[in-house]
Amino acid sequence: xxxxxxxxxxxxxxxxxxxxxxxxxxxxxxxxxxxxxxxxxxxxxxxxxxxxxxxxxxxxxxxxxxxxxxxxxxxxxxxxxxxxxxxxxxxxxxxxxxxxxxxxxxxxxxxxxxxxxxxxxxxxxxxxxxxxxxxxxxxxxxxxxxxxxxxxxxxxxxxxxxxxxxxxxxxxxxxxxxxxxxxxxxxxxxxxxxxxxxxxxxxxxxxxxxxxxxxxxxxxxxxxxxxxxxxxxxxxxxxxxxxxxxxxxxxxxxxxxxxxxxxxxxxxxxxxxxxxxxxxxxxxxxxxxxxxxx
Length: 294
What we know:
Helices cover 43% and strands 29% of the residues. It is α+β, with helices and mostly antiparallel strands. It has two domains: 117 residues; 144 residues, Jelly Rolls (Sandwich). Strands 1, 2, 3, 4, 5, 6, 7, 8, 9 and 10 form a ten-stranded antiparallel sheet that branches. Strand 5 and strand 6 form a beta hairpin. Helix 3 runs antiparallel to helix 4 and helix 3 runs parallel beside helix 5. The longest helix has 42 residues. The N terminus is likely disordered.
């Protein structure tokens, strides 16, 4: 890898790391502690699992209903929201959840009605609740329109479509500003992820065809090497962003195209950089032999 490429990749990773550190340090404007809710007589459902080994108290929900069930968890009255975007985050684990469930947050505004956010993604911190999962992070983000007054109330519910056991840790309400990289804001949707993969595959196929034709003809050596280097560099950057996507909890539709296309481009570009010169030398040797015979 050239020094300039190495430095560029390192700078990108360092910057992303700084953004993640900044996100981890965001102070919550409100916290929901299940033990405190129980002491205040405001626990709506479930039972509180006391803190153990330094871990905070958790809310345990055991659902036995076979059909769709809406389970109110808590309300955050008059949240101190000062940014256009905010989120409720926490940790969840569950066992033997039948059907597809999710967490939802209803945002009540003084004007304009009510709007919700739901964890219905197939991966990442906004993933739905299904089957069994060890403790993982979840997030319920929301972005207000410009000039919209702060919400008057946030209502958090658990929606299940079958029996199962769920445990939820303390909830934190955090502000999100334009400089914050958060685990709950996806870089793109599932359909966009498919488009990214399709365009990346088409790009790689086109470049591969140009390289293959020119190498087979023994022409355009500088162009072939330049395209091969460009593919390898682009693949390295895609891999770097793919690693960042995985580390920040981005969904499958975000990190998979980056990791897959990045690895393929690095392999293909590097292989061309090593193999193309020998093919051009073979063409040059045959041309020299042909001249000697003539």
